[in-house]
Amino acid sequence: METIDTTQAQLEAFILDYTAQPSVNLPVDLAPGSVLSEWLIKLSAAIQNQWRNDVAAVTGAPSVAAAVSATGDTYSEAITKVASNFNVARDDGAKAAGKVKVTVATSRTYFINSDFRLFQPSLNQEFQTTQAFRVDPAQTDNIADGQLKLYSESANGPYYFLLPVEAVDTGDAPSTIRHNQAFVLGTNVKLTDFVQANAFGSFTGGRAKETDRSLISRFQTGLSAKGMMSPVSIQALLPTFFTGLPTVSASGEAQAIVAMLGANDPEVLRGKNNAFGITPFGLVDLYIRTSQTIETAEFTVAAVKLNNLDDTWQIVLNSDTSNFPAWFYHLESMEFNSSSPEVVYSVYGSPENKQLTPLTARYSKYQQATITFTHSSPPVSATAGDTTPVKIVVSYMPYIGEIQDLLLQSAHRVPAADYLVKAVIPCQVSVNINLQTSTSQTIPVEEIKVRIFNYINGLQFGESLMLSRLVDICHDYPIRRVDLPLVAVGAILTPALTSSNTAEQQYSTISNDVLSIPAEPQLLAAGVSANTTMFFADCSSLSDGRETISITLS
Amino acid sequence: MPISSLTTDYTGRTRDINIMQGANPRVSTATKVVLSAGKVSSYCAGVQKLLQRYTVTILTPLGSQPNYPAFGTNLIKNLRTKGRAVKSDLVHAFNFANSNALAIMQQYQQANPDIPLDEQIDTALLDDLTVSDKGDLLLSVRVYTKAGTVVPYVLPVPIPV
């Protein structure tokens, strides 16, 4: 849409050019407050601006063919109405949102207004609060009432509060904001005693408003691929059911990436407990990637005291745990544990999918995790059977349980198949790159990281990571050279039955030319192969300060 | 308004449409000015154009222009809502509005430094305010230009008091 300032500038330029002609020779004053500006220019600009935007809206996409062939993005109301005939609605986009841990130096009451802004420099995104908050050490978190608690990390501070924010604009983020990523105060924003601000848990990804071209492709694909019989049809249909699906594809369109494995595939471990040890036809494992990065979030769950003899407590996590991804990859951290908690995985409730074992249920909604730990600060006078809330942080792939439920619905279920939906097995990549530069050139390190991130996270099932491609990316910038060899390390989070079996849980593969998912018997025995495992990279630093994509300049 | 000389030489000047009908620079006493384009339109430049711009800026109600919510002041609105106001209230209302109007004009001047100095406003001060025999409010304002000229004039406020 053309802004009023642009229309006014064009009108003023036209008037000045016309009056400057020798035949007219009438230099006019268009300053604010002048009659010509207030009575002629501004009124004309307002009318013309409205006309121009109305014409642009009408001519932008008068037909499906015009929208498809348009050089820029169009958002025609006519296309929205056409799509509704195919039961498809335009996605109006979403703003990235999450919580920021704001650390302050003094324990007192703080007032945060409704337009309080924080800026994330590496992603160049601004975030704001949507309501006013009162932060007080004496009260509890009650976001609906605008109240936040001021927590204390120790008796003498520092102090912090968890501030809910959302992005100022809808739109795709180049990467999801990760836990502990730093923010700065926005322009002209002041907060007395401010120390620092960091992301608290992962943010939900932002999403741009769906263009006409993307909307048309959805209902075109929907017409041709209605069943759940192939990875292509499932990939095409999932965004219609889950409009919140984050951007995964290289083209920027919202879709999941699906690998479908059946009886003839060695990665399918179900159903082999028969006389021949062969998986029967009909059992299908779907490995799905629904997000560019692995989500990490905090959840509050209930822990139960096991006995009256010591402070051993237990948490059971399964699909009945409210608002919790039962298919999570790994327990990242938890409060109140005085030693490393033990996690044991088993199967929970599989009336639709039979023949599940604890290993084959991993990363699916039928996974059950039992966490046993020693409580470092147990409630006073707690007895066996008492419960207490405990905060845990887990990593997971979103929507896996919801997709499993969709495929079990009678309207979508394939009668001859038994679909088991599992989260893709992640291979987390880390690489150190040293660039030789000249002192006169500024190298945009964060931009290089984002491009490397997009390349690694855009690799499909079966594709290998070419380290030469990373060198290509670096040489798009004014560097002298990339120090070779580049070494990439991939850590595969292999499914295991317990958390203590770390030797199996993280399998590392290293390469200095092509990083591939190994084809090894011990990995295949856990269902790990290039058909079930994908590469993941992360732009931001880990909680202990290490970077997965590390770029240094010399 | 006291004018030292008259000229019709507009060389180096930009012109605006004159809407201060009735202004007579040849007399030294105050004359009534009607804000209109007049039966026969004419130009203005120099100090008269400056006073015209200042008058339009300070009398335009803030938010009254579609798409330009930041142009104007709250002078008319505050004067209309004062009710049984005392003189000091009216002085405050003028001072707030004057500050806004000066900010708008000075921001434009900073972006266009080649404007002649007698068409650039330095500041404006309220000398006095009185009520006419017809009940209208008359604000006696002294306008200072960057050329050093001091121009006293009466700002016509189009509301009865």
Query: Tally the helices of chain B: what do you get?
Result: 3
> What is the rounded Rg of chain A?
28 Å
Low-confidence stretches of chain B: none
Structural class of chain B: alpha+beta
Q: What is the helix fraction of residues of chain B, given as a range?
A: 25-40%
What is the terminal-to-terminal distance of chain B? 25 Å
Q: Report the span from N to C terminus of chain A.
A: 45 Å
Report the strand count of chain B: 7
Instruction: Provide the helix percentage of chain A.
Output: 10-25%
> Overall mean pLDDT score of chain A?
82
Annotation keywords:
heterodimer, A: 554 residues, alpha+beta, 6-stranded antiparallel barrel, 21% helix, B: 161 residues, 3-stranded antiparallel sheet, two-stranded antiparallel ribbon, 3 helices
Draw up the topology in text.
The complex is a heterodimer of chains A (554) and B (161).
Chain A: H1 4-20, H2 35-60, H3 64-69, H4 77-84, E1 97-104, E2 110-112, E3 117-120, E4 125-128, E5 133-136, E6 147-149, E7 151-152, E8 159-167, E9 182-185, E10 194-204, H5 212-224, H6 231-241, E11 257-261, E12 283-289, E13 295-305, E14 312-317, E15 330-334, E16 342-347, E17 367-374, E18 387-396, H7 400-408, E19 418-423, E20 425-436, H8 445-457, E21 465-466, H9 467-474, E22 481-482, E23 488-493, H10 502-505, E24 506-511, E25 514-515, H11 521-524, E26 533-536, E27 549-553
Parallel strand pairs in A: 5-6, 12-19, 20-26, 20-27
Antiparallel strand pairs in A: 1-8, 1-10, 2-5, 3-4, 3-9, 4-8, 7-8, 9-10, 11-12, 13-14, 13-18, 14-17, 15-18, 16-17, 20-22, 20-23, 21-25, 23-24
Helix pairs in contact in A: 1-2
Chain B: E1 16-17, E2 20-21, E3 34-35, E4 43-44, H1 46-59, H2 75-81, H3 87-111, E5 121-131, E6 136-145, E7 150-160
Antiparallel strand pairs in B: 1-4, 2-3, 5-6, 6-7
Helix pairs in contact in B: 1-3
